[in-house]
Amino acid sequence: xxxxxxxxxxxxxxxxxxxxxxxxxxxxxxxxxxxxxxxxxxxxxxxxxxxxxxxxxxxxxxxxxxxxxxxxxxxxxxxxxxxxxxxxxxxxxxxxxxxxxxxxxxxxxxxxxxxxxxxxxxxxxxxxxxxxxxxxxxxxxxxxxxxxxxxxxxxxxxxxxxxxxxxxxxxxxxxxxxxxxxxxxxxxxxxxxxxxxxxxxxxxxxxxxxxxxxxxxxxxxxxxxxxxxxxxxxxxxxxxxxxxxxxxxxxxxxxxxxxxxxxxxxxxxxxxxxxxxxxxxxxxxxxxxxxxxxxxxxxxxxxxxxxxxxxxxxxxxxxxxxxxxxxxxxxxxxxxxxxxxxxxxxxxxxxxxxxxxxxxxxxxxxxxxxxxxxxxxxxxxxxxxxxxxxxxxxxxxxxxxxxxxxxxxxxxxxxxxxxxxxxxxxxxxxxxxxxxxxxxxx
Length: 442
Ligand code: S3P
Hints:
Blueprint: E1 2-4, E2 11-14, H1 20-31, E3 36-40, H2 46-57, E4 62-64, E5 72-75, E6 87-90, H3 95-105, E7 112-115, H4 126-134, E8 138-142, E9 153-159, E10 168-170, H5 176-186, E11 193-196, H6 204-211, E12 215-219, E13 222-226, E14 236-238, H7 243-255, E15 260-267, H8 274-281, E16 285-294, E17 296-304, E18 312-313, H9 315-318, H10 325-333, E19 338-341, H11 354-364, E20 368-375, E21 378-384, E22 393-394, H12 400-411, E23 417-419, H13 432-439
Parallel strand pairs: 2-15, 3-14, 6-7, 10-11, 18-19, 22-23
Antiparallel strand pairs: 1-23, 3-5, 4-5, 7-9, 8-9, 11-13, 12-13, 15-17, 16-17, 19-21, 20-21
The protein binds shikimate-3-phosphate.
């Protein structure tokens, strides 16, 4: 059990770790490049370590600086990994590792088996398996017949394909992991691969493909890739800080009184920062300083305590803030009025069902929050904001974003709270607790 004592205010400047999505992609792209690449600062966490471990098993060498682990040097070997026998890979709990790397594996000349940890083992893989098969990929998942889930799950079994062909995919969900897997498989295919999403998901893969010389066209939610162009990677890949990690501190400064925080060098990619737009609508005092760009835009986010009011978040806004919904629930719990967050189906298949994890925990603490899954607007959360919440024992359900959101909620609460398990935070943000402790003013 971890105990969280409330605090009154924060006045500080923090740097949160490097972006998780870009760290994974930097590893994958460097691996299929043809030179030694420096990746910095790299997010050193359980999820990104899973990607590094997999790449190593695929015959790619890398070294990490000993002290901070924040710089990686990785020697690419081109599109085909130097293996000729079957490879067994383990993705741990990283959905990004198993889903995106599978896009590269279906183009290889060797077989592979991709296994997953206990939580990831129950997350759906049909969303990559079926469209990859339409491109001629030889990939299968586990049916988990006993659980009657009706999808495919890890382990994934991949055999060499007799020839991949480009295909036009229309996705019924917005997913950057699925889009990336299909585009990367498209590098090995004959003909054009097109991916069209209902709403634009994070576009780090497209930005990198474009910057590295791939033949790619991007038109709103539609991306098309023609294979054959020689990828020309730079000597260094710079990774800005993770907006999803910054979001916890942004909300903390907003809901505490007399507070101010600067979060340095944060990724400001519009396909990631949907939360900023929503918080500003809620009357949040947030400004951006020192804006720069290196493949991705980034800058310093300056936040001051604000009297938040409620808002309605439409389904079309969710893709650009999919990982920030738990922390938005916390902001809404301290805002005046009724906040409605629509279009949350995808939240149910994250590391845990985050609709359930947030609604069950916050309602226990006295927040007026409910989950409506039968409305014409699909799955939604409705929160009537308030204050003076009671101290309770929270459950993280092994989910990093649930755990961090509940810690932020507790820091602004009136009574101390406890949370059962916070080890899951290391999935994306080792050092979170240390920064929280540093934030506390004496
Ligand atoms: C990610 C995409 C999102 C996000 C996840 C990371 C990525 O998942 O929730 O944390 O790096 O591509 P989906 O593609 O399932 O939406």
